Amino acid sequence: MAESRTGSDTGRGGPVARPGRVLATVCLCQLMVVLDISVVNVALPEIGRDLGFAPGGLSWVVNAYTLVFGGLLLLGGRIADLFGHRRATIAGLALFGVASLLGGLAQTPGQLVAARAGQGLAAAVLAPISLTVIMVTFEEGAPRRRALGSWTMVAISGGALGVLLGGVLTDLLDWRWVMFVNVPLVVLALPLALSSVRTGGGGSRRLDIAGASLGTAAMTVLVFGLLETEKHPWGSLRTLATLGGAALLAVAFVLWERRSAAPLVRLSVFASRTVWLANVLSLLVGAATVAGFYFASLFLQHVLDYDPLAAGVAFLPFCGGAVLGSFAASRLVGRVDGRLLIGGGLALGGVGMLWFGTLRPDSTFLGGFLGPSLVASVGIGLSVMANTAMGTSRVASDEAGLVSGLLNASRQCGGSVGLAALSTVAVTVTDNAATADPVAALADGYARAFSCVGVGVLAASLLAVLLVPRLPAPRNQTQNA
Question: Per the domain annotation, does 2 fall within a domain?
Fold first, then answer.
C-alpha cells in the first residue's frame, strides 16, 4: 500500500513527503545529536589511557562537541531556511558520518578533539532541521502532535540511552565504537532523507554575515565561559571577563539585528507570547534535565558504586517514563488546556527532582532511585512535548528553522548554565559537609543540587500556569513546505 501523503510539494523539484520516512529520518538525526552528548562519557578513562591525553585535557573530548554545538545552533537553524531542508539534512548527516569515522580512527588527542568538534558542527545543523522538517511536513493538529511526540521521546531518552550504549560498547568492544556507532546510523538515515525530505526553505540566499558572526561569537564565548567554571570560580576575573564579553557580544548582536536588512534572527518573532515563553521554559527545562541527568549518573557511580554499564541500565526506567509522558502529551495536546499540560508536567518533574534530593548513601535502586526516575521523566516528557508544540504553532514555514534553532539554543544554553551553576553548588556543599565520610559528603552535594533543580522546575511550572495562553484548537489545514 502506498504511504499517505501530507501537504504538497514546494515547487522546487522535491518529492512529496512520505510521513513515515520523514519521521524516521528526523528521529535518527535527533538520536545521533543526543547520543553523542553522553555516549563518550563512560569511555573517557579508556580514551585517556589509549591516546595519552594530558591531565585536564580529557574534558575537551566532551567540551569540543558542546562548545561548537551550542555556539552554532542559531546559524544552523537559519541555514535550513536559506539553503533548503534536504540540502541541510544531507550535509549535516554526511559531516556527522565523516567526523565520527575520523574520530574512531584517531591516533592523537588533537585528532579526536577535532573530530568531536566536527560532530558538534553537524549537530548544530541537524538538531534544528529535525524539528523544522516536522513543522513543515506535518499539518498542525493531530499529525504534528504525533510526530512531535516521537521526536520528544528520542530527544529526552536519547541521553540515557547514550550512557547505556557507551557502557556496552566500551565494555564489550572498544572505546572507538562510541564514535563508529554513528556511521551505520548515517548510512541508514541518508537514503531515507534523500527519498522523503522535501527541498523546502531555499528562500532568499542572503545570509547576515555580521549577525551570524556576532551571534555565533556570543553563544560560543558564553558556552566556553560556562564550561571553564569547572576550573575557574564564578567570581574569578577570568570567568567574569568571559561572561561579560559574551554579554557585550549579545548586545551588539541585538543592535545589529534591529537594523539588518536580512537579519539572522527577526526579533519581531518574539512579539508572539508562545515563542518567547516557549524559549524561556525550554531554557529552564534544559537546565533541569541536563543537570539532573548528570547528577543522577554521578550518584549511581560514586555513591551507590555502580559500574558504567549498570548505571546505564539503571536509566532505562527514565527512558520508559519519558516515552510514556511524550506519548500521553501527543494525545492530550489540543484537548487539554496547555497551562495544565505544561504546568502539570513541570510540577511532576519538579516533585521528582526534589525526591531525588532525598537520596542517601544507603538508598537502593528499588527503594530510592526508581520512584523519582519515573515521576520526573513522565513529567518532563509531558511538558517538553507540549511546550515544543506551543512554541512551533502558527509559525510561518520560512521561519521554521529560525524558531527551531531558537528552541534548541535555549535548551542547550539552559543546560550549560544549569550544569555549571549546580556543579558549583554540589562541590561547595561537599567541601563544607560536616562529615568525614567522603561518600556521604558527595551524597550531600548531589542532594543539594537535586533540590535546587526541583525548585527551578517548580518555578517554571508556576510560570507556565500564569502565562501559557489558552490556544484554540488548530485548524486542519495542510501546510506547504
Answer: no
pLDDT recorded at residue 103: 92
Question: Splitting the chain (481 residues) into consecutive groups of 10 residues, what average pLDDT does each group show?
Answer: 39 51 86 82 79 72 79 74 80 93 92 92 85 76 75 75 79 87 91 78 61 79 74 83 91 85 71 80 83 80 80 81 82 77 90 90 86 90 82 66 72 75 80 80 88 90 84 43 35
User: Would you state the pLDDT for residue 201?
Assistant: 52
- The candidate with the shortest Cα–Cα distance to 330, out of 383, 368, 278, is 383
Residue 167 and residue 303 in one domain: no
| Strand ranges in 260-402 using DSSP code E only, listed in sequence order | none
My answer on whether 226 and 146 are in the same domain is no
Last residue of a domain, one of 175, 199, 223: 199
User: Which candidate, 21, 15, 17, places its Cα nearest to that of 6?
Assistant: 17
pLDDT tens-place string over residues 434-443: 777 888 888 8
336, β-bridge pairs: 333
Q: Say if residues 134 and 151 touch (Cβ distance below 8 Å).
A: yes
Query: For residues 160 and 39, what is the distance between their CA atoms, to the nearest angstrom?
Result: 9
Looking at 173, 199, 225, which one is the last position of a domain?
199
For residue 65, what is the domain's CATH number? 1.20.1250.20
Q: Is residue 467 situated within a structural domain? A: yes
The CA dihedral of 39, 69, 268, 143, to the nearest 10 degrees, is -40
- Residues 6+ positions from 86 with CB-CB distance below 8 Å: 14, 193, 194, 197, 198, 199, 200
Is residue 125 domain-shared with residue 251, that is, in the same domain? Answer: no
pLDDT of the residue at 16:
41
Q: How far apart are CA 440 and CA 88, in angstroms?
A: 49
Quickly count: other Cβ atoms within 10 Å of residue 142's Cβ: 16
* Structural domain harbouring 116: 16-199
Indicate if 186 and 216 belong to the same structural domain: no
Half-sphere exposure of 193 (CA within 13 A, CB side): 28
Instruction: Indicate the number of domains in the chain.
Output: 3
One domain for residues 347 and 274: yes
Q: Does residue 428 contact residue 297 with C-beta atoms inside 8 Å?
A: no
Any domain includes 380: yes
Residues 383 and 302 in one domain: yes
Distance, in Å, from the CA atom of 65 to the CA atom of 116, rounded to the nearest integer, reads 5
